[in-house]
Known about the structure:
Largest sheet: 5 strands, mixed
Distance between the termini: 25 Å
Order of helices and strands: EHEHEEEHEEEE
Oligomer: single chain
Number of helices: 3
CATH topology of the largest domain: 2,3-Dihydroxybiphenyl 1,2-Dioxygenase, domain 1
Radius of gyration: 18 Å
Strand content: 25-35%
Number of strands: 9
Shape: globular
Amino acid sequence: xxTPPSPGRDVTTSPSAHHVGITVADLDRAVSFYTDTFGFxxxxxxxxxxxxxxxxxxxxxxSGRFAHLDADGVRLELVEYEPEGEPLPxxxxxxxxxxxxGFAVDDLDAxxxxxxxxVETISEPQTTESGTTILFVRDPEGNLVEVLExx
Length: 151
C-alpha cells in the first residue's frame, strides 16, 4: 500500500523503494555468497558503462557489472566497478554512517547450524531483551548482514 502524495507534490515524482545496492570487489563471489547462504534468486545480470553512467555515478570512465537478486521481494543489487575504488575500513555497528541490512528467518538456530563454517559471524545467535534473536554475519566484502528471528 503506497502513501498518497503530499499536497502540492506531483504523483510522478513521489519516490518508491526500488533496490538496496552493495558495491563489491568480486561480483561472482558475492553472488555465490548470497545465493548459497540465503537462497536468493538471480533476477538479472548486466553491464553498464559509457559517459552518462560515469557522470551519473561520479566515477570517471566507470563501468559496472551488476547482478540483481530477489531477497524475498527486496531487490538486492550487487555491483562491481571498473575502476575499483579503495575499500572502506572494517565496519562496526557503532560507527556513524554504518549500514547493514536484515533478513528474517523462521528458525535462526537451524539457519546457524547449517551456516557454512567459512562465513564470518560476530557471535552465536543472541536473544535480546526485546525477544528478537539476532545473528550478524559478514559477506565476503565485509558488509554486515543481520539475520533475525522475531519472538
